[in-house]
Amino acid sequence: MSRKEQTPAQISTFTMMMIFIVLAISFAAIILAIQAYSVYENQFAAAYLTFIGILGIALSLYTIMQVRRRLARLKIETPPVITTIECKKCGFKSVREFQRGDYVFKEVEPCRKCNENMIITAIYREFKEKRKETTSF
Amino acid sequence: MMMLQGLLFELPGGGDVFSQILTILIYAFLFISLFYGQKIQMHLMLKEIEGSLYRLKYIRDEGRRIAIETIKEVGKPQKDPTTMVDRFLEYFTIQPEDMDPAGIVWKLEHILDVRDARFKDEVKLLAPEADDVQINNLENTLEAAMALNYIYKVIRHYYLLGKKTLSLYIIMQIQMILPLVMREAEAYASALKAFAYGQPIGDGIGPLVAAKLMHGYPVRKVAKDCVVAEVPIEGRIAYVIKAEGPGGNVGKPGDAVKAVIEENEGKIASIIMIDAALKLEGEEVGEVSEGVGAAIGGPGVDKFKIEETILKYRIPINAVIIKEDIGDAVSPMRKEIFDSADKAIERIKQVILEKTKEGDKIIIVGVGNTIGIGQ
How much is the ipTM here? Predict the structure, then answer.
């Protein structure tokens, strides 16, 4: 398995180069448009060049946003996992983040109230729904 | 500037310049869609597959990285385990020949046993300092990494094949199943960390219900990687069976059920199996349902053994399932699923009261991966 290939978590050099070239041309078009309007007083050419410039900048920004969105989508989300510890004798309950080695029904540290050994009674993750379904079924 | 203006005004077609441009664009669009429409569609499909392939590659590499890091952290190997892990990711299992299906279950069982033993030996070599629980968890982590590697390679194969042959049908097939493949890959990706850390997963709801029932009662080993406890429930004696935790393990519930039935000379009033089941879209996660039959997935060996034994002694079998989707089944257990364990216990008690008499002997089997769940 070759590990020299570019990882998808990086933006490719070619894409970046293309974005910069388009941006440079777009800015040049806008400068030319200003020049055409103020120096040559040619409103028609100025309008065309402004249109090209704005279109180029919009396309570049859209591409950058798309690439950023793709990179964000690549990350694997790891939701927090919660461990609940309970004392069977006095009912004292404590909740903490999951630690490696935890398992359901494992005996852990003694209870702070009655000194009896506590046990892990629950390990779960809280799931947050990204968006609610709008269907009525 | 004047040249640009002049050039635009000189375009053929008559009328104003915008109408001319629009006409040319419409003609160009028609021409392109007529002759290159399919190629453009194919290109767009290939682009979509390529995007998903990037994500699959990232997930596959993450899986490999997590597996290697966990082995280094837990197993403290003398050598760098990277080469061995890469070799492990390429392992395969050949299914037995099914031209003459008689006896195929035993052949399949044998092959699965050999595979299991081989995996365990390899993991022990990879992580010499790991204890039994950690070895089971590492084995599960590597299996998830293997699945991700396989999914990536299959999708890449069809993508490259489609690109090489320019066959619309090859590309279309893969593009159509891609959303489902991606869901499965995402599920395995979230499973990786759960296996690496030894967190209970959604599939463990069956063993969790069994563990809740048997907790506090003496436990003994009954078959390979399975434990049983005699628990009094509603005036009946329940033999509660689950895979031995807290390491990642499904055990051999088929053998365990057979052993308990034979210990009692077939005098078992009912068997109740609890398992996680795939929910349909629109159903609630953690919904509890009840039915009849052997609620157990996997390659089918254990299901076959249970069905054979209950048929021999004519024992009725009931099933209680907890609904969840593929993503929930292999990722850390959701609160809704954890909370459904109590609802499932209530349902089991209801089945016991309705289907058996006081003093009867029953078997309750919690089916699934017991990772992160003791007894």
Answer: 0.84
Query: Would the CB atoms of A103 and B200 count as touching at under 8 Å?
Result: yes
* Tokens read off for A128: 């947050």
> Does A45 contact chain B (CB < 8 Å)?
yes
User: For chain B, how many structural domains are there in total?
Assistant: 2
Interface contact B372-A137, CB threshold 8 A:
no
Q: Which residue of B has its CA nearest to A8?
A: B54
Residue of A nearest to B82 (CA): A1
- Cis peptide bond prior to B246, omega within 30° of 0: yes
- We report the CATH number of the domain holding residue B285 as 3.40.50.1470
Asked if B138 and B251 sit in the same domain, the reply is: no
pLDDT in tens, B16-74: 666 777 788 888 889 888 888 888 888 889 988 998 998 899 999 999 999 999 999 98
Residues B235 and B343 in one domain: yes
Do B227 and B332 lie in one domain? The reply is yes
Tokens found for residue A92:
């004292």
Residue-range definition of the domain harbouring residue B127: 44-196
In a shared domain, residues B152 and B73: yes
**3 state DSSP class of A95:** strand
Query: Which residues of chain B make contact with A77, given a CB cutoff of 8 A?
Result: 190
CA distance B75 to B131: 9
Contact B61 A7 (CB under 8 A): yes
User: pLDDT digits over B246-292, tens only?
Assistant: 999 899 999 999 999 999 999 999 999 999 999 999 999 999 999 99
| Domain contains B280 | yes
Distance from CA of B265 to the nearest CA of A (A): 33
In a domain, B238, yes or no: yes
Tell me whether residues A104 and B200 touch, CB distance under 8 A.
yes
Q: Rounded to an integer, what distance in angstroms lies between the CA atom of residue B36 and that of residue B247? A: 57
